[in-house]
């Protein structure tokens, strides 16, 4: 378990340009340029996500994985008799749910509609990924739920009376059941919930693996060589959950957020057989229009020669089974 106070700060594995509070202030005050709108054909400009093929009623074949996009970075994963959530958030973004922090689209599933949740995977502590109301509600509604955390976050849970949690450092692994194992893998990002705790807790992605299926949840991340390393380590994935939004302006967002072109490269780097886009369309956390990321994703898939069905942007509540 991690310590509640740290004298050192966590760092990314690979060097990158700074993404700091001064840059955010410059952006918010309009002291730096905005990205021009990317050129899109009329057909792409009108593109919106395609519907997924399934719903969450019943249990999938135990040898398969069913992924349902709730919204933002929240997925319900069902596999081998277990139900997992990633970065659960079902309402507005705390602590000040006003303006861009208010949800722009309803969650695809509400808390009351969830099946019994056995495990929750948290990628980092930013408010749009670690949501206190959702965590409290899950702990109350699903008493046996276990929370899996990057290093340093267990104190946050203990202060809220939640002890059923485990911290991992990058490279550590654990067993969810006799059939399912998870691995904590690097991401390129950062952490903070106040002005005074920058990078005091870690950030990560997660791999969920069984004898029949493997799933990669990238969390929140910028682009770096880590994806080729993860793809090489695990030999590819049946399903990858990859963020495509919150990328503009690039001078500020590039170190910590993928744009659609980089997301396609991640899909290729990790050798994903099927990917689902996330981290778009729910909160307007950056300058790009809410519906721009899937249009650009379609464009970049074409440029890379990737079949559109291999990397899909679906509607909240839609499911894909692999």
Give structural notes.
The structure is a single chain. This protein has 322 residues and is α/β, with parallel strands linked by helices. The chain has a single domain, classed as Ribonuclease Z/Hydroxyacylglutathione hydrolase-like (Metallo-beta-lactamase, Chain A). It is built from eight helices and 14 strands. It has helices at 21-28, 42-45, 132-141, 154-158, 226-234, 250-253, 260-269, 292-304, and strands spanning 65-71, 74-79, 82-86, 119-121, 146-150, 165-168, 173-175, 181-185, 205-209, 214-217, 239-243, 275-278, 311-312, 319-321. The strands form two sheets. Strands 6-5-4-3-2-1-14 form a seven-stranded mixed beta sheet, with no helix packed on it. Strands 7-8-9-10-11-12-13 form a seven-stranded mixed beta sheet, covered by helices on one side. A hairpin with a 4-residue loop joins strand 9 (205-209) and strand 10 (214-217). The longest helix has 13 residues, at 292-304. The radius of gyration is 18 Å and the shape is globular. The two termini are 34 Å apart. Residues 1-5 have low confidence and may be disordered.
């Amino acid at each position: 378990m991690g310590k509640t106070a740290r004298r050192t700060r966590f760092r990314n594995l690979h060097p990158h340009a700074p993404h700091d509070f001064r840059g955010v202030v410059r952006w918010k005050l309009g002291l730096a340029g905005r990205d021009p709108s990317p050129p899109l054909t009329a057909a792409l400009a009108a593109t919106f996500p395609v519907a997924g093929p399934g719903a969450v009623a019943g249990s999938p074949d135990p040898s398969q994985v069913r992924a349902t996009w709730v919204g933002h970075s929240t997925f319900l994963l069902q596999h081998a008799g277990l139900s997992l959530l990633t970065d659960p958030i079902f309402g507005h973004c705390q602590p000040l749910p006003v303006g861009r922090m208010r949800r722009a689209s309803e969650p695809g599933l509400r808390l009351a509609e969830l099946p019994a949740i056995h495990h929750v995977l948290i990628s980092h502590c930013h408010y749009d990924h670690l949501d206190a109301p959702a965590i409290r509600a899950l702990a109350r509604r699903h008493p046996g739920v276990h929370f899996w955390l990057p290093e340093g976050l267990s104190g946050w849970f203990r202060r809220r009376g939640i002890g059923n949690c485990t911290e991992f450092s990058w490279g550590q692994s654990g067993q969810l059941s006799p059939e399912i194992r998870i691995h904590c893998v690097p991401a390129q990002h950062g952490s903070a919930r106040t002005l005074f705790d920058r990078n005091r807790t870690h950030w990560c992605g997660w791999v969920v693996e069984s004898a029949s299926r493997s799933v990669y949840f990238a969390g929140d991340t910028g682009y770096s060589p880590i994806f080729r390393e993860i793809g090489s380590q695990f030999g590819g994935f049946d399903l990858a959950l990859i963020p495509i939004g919150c990328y503009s302006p690039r001078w500020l967002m590039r170190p910590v957020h993928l744009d659609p072109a980089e997301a396609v490269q991640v899909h290729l780097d990790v050798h994903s057989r099927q990917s689902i886009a996330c981290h778009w369309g729910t909160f307007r956390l950056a300058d790009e229009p809410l519906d721009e990321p899937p249009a650009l994703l379609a464009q970049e898939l074409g440029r890379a020669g990737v079949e559109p069905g291999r990397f899909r942007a679906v509607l909240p509540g839609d499911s894909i089974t692999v």
